[in-house]
Design a protein that fits this description.
This protein is of the alpha/beta class. It is 42% helix and 19% strand. The protein contains 14 helices and 14 strands. Strands 5-4-3-6-9 form a five-stranded mixed sheet, with helices on both faces. β7 and β8 form a beta hairpin. α7 packs across α14. The protein is globular, with a radius of gyration of 23 Å.
């Protein structure tokens, strides 16, 4: 595999064809030679020759036959699971999720909810490196086959240059280069919402839809955009900063440094702030005892409280859902998407947030536009981010 990557980097014609076959297999799964030939726009004999070379080198393999109603059953070809491995790291506000997939995209190990507090400090970065090292060390695979580690980071991330401008911005060098030095593996970084969007697109609720808006309502608020089956990044990779649209005349300073951002009222951090204010004011909740003991209350605690019918938390999440739906109505009017996926930590409250969102979208968007858009919760749920990180980890090796 490393030889192929060297050839791709050199830009040889045959290597680029192999890259196209790999990308086709990533997005379409197992295919016949005829299907691959049509997809990469090459003749069947040429495709067959190159595919045989890839099977001999162990990159691809023959994985069965296509079931047909009669006649000859053509062979199916797919990515060889053991050819390579890819690690994904999904950083949350109070935890880290980390996983590893094989070349076929199958999750072979997963660690959810590893304790971690996201802070913009060298100590927090060092702690993150320790978590990743420990996870890789326990793997029983050939570690030389780990081709990439992808790290999800919230906020402004340029995945091509490797710079993060929201967190761990301590040096002039790209963060991806710093992580590569510390971990000893190739490292790429990406915006967490964009990775989640890709995860749902490849392994979640998306079927044949090509125009999709993914909404990540977690500690912050962002959207991922897929247009005609391709992830939209914007010129510098900063697209989707939905949470930083000026929406309110409040005096709340957003973490971006500005006032009145949508995220200051519609996000997990906004719900957390309002809940703490209400508990301090004497409001009653199933979390009151924890708050009184000055124990850490996480977003997971709040989601669990909602799902256990905590009235205070339900009121808060429904209000956030209503406001989110009002603003999403404008997004739907602009993009006219086939599908809107609601993901992120607060989406785990299910109908408590989904119903207010849907009602507000129907109320405030144009009927002729919203009838085209199905609005669904993320299928991967709490695993959306880590699945997306792993899938992005694989994609980044062959995308450019």
């Amino acid at each position: 595999m490393n030889r192929l990557l060297d050839e791709i980097e050199k830009g040889t014609k045959e290597a680029l064809v192999k890259k196209r076959i790999i990308l086709c297999s990533i997005h379409n799964g197992e295919s016949t030679i005829a299907e691959l030939s049509k997809e990469i726009d090459m003749s069947v004999p040429t495709t067959t020759k190159i595919l045989n070379e890839m099977c001999s080198s162990g990159t691809m393999y023959e994985c069965g036959k296509l079931e047909t109603n009669g006649g000859r059953h053509p062979n199916l070809y797919g990515l060889n699971p053991d050819a390579a491995y890819f690690v994904g790291v999904d950083i949350k506000q109070f935890a880290v999720n980390i996983g590893i997939i094989n070349f076929k995209g199958e999750m072979i190990d997963l660690a959810m909810g590893v304790p971690y507090e996201m802070k913009n400090s060298p100590e927090a970065l060092s702690k993150l490196m320790d978590i990743i090292h420990q996870f890789i060390e326990k793997q029983v695979i050939d570690k030389t086959k780990i081709l990439n580690i992808a790290v999800n980071i919230s906020g402004r991330v340029n995945s091509e240059s490797g710079y993060s401008y929201s967190i761990f911005y301590f040096e002039e060098r790209p963060l991806a280069d710093i992580l590569r030095e510390k971990l000893g593996y190739r490292v790429t970084i990406d915006n967490d919402t964009r990775a989640m969007t890709y995860g749902e697109y490849i392994a979640g609720c998306v079927s044949k839809e090509k125009d999709i808006i993914f909404v990540n309502i977690s500690w912050g608020l962002g959207i991922g955009i897929i247009i005609d089956g391709k992830i939209y990044k914007g010129k510098s990779g900063f697209s989707g900063e939905f949470g930083h649209v000026k929406s309110y005349d409040n005096e709340i300073i957003c973490h971006c440094g500005k006032k009145g951002c949508l995220e200051t009222e519609v996000s997990g951090s906004a719900m957390y702030r309002r809940l703490m204010e209400m508990l301090k004011g004497g409001a009653t909740s199933s979390l009151s005892k924890k708050w009184a003991k000055n124990e850490l209350i996480t977003m997971d605690d709040i989601v669990q409280a909602v799902n256990k019918e905590d009235v205070l938390c339900i009121d808060l999440v429904e209000d956030i859902g209503r406001q989110l739906g009002e603003h999403l109505a404008g997004i739907i009017n602009i993009f006219n998407p086939e599908m809107v996926i609601i993901g992120g930590t607060l989406s785990l409250t299910g109908d408590y947030i989904m119903q207010p969102i849907i009602a507000a979208i129907r109320k405030y968007s144009l009927n002729l536009v919203n009838k085209d858009s199905v609005i669904v919760p993320a299928k991967l749920k709490e695993k959306t981010g880590i699945v997306g990180a792993c899938m992005i980890s694989r994609l980044r090796i062959f995308e450019y």
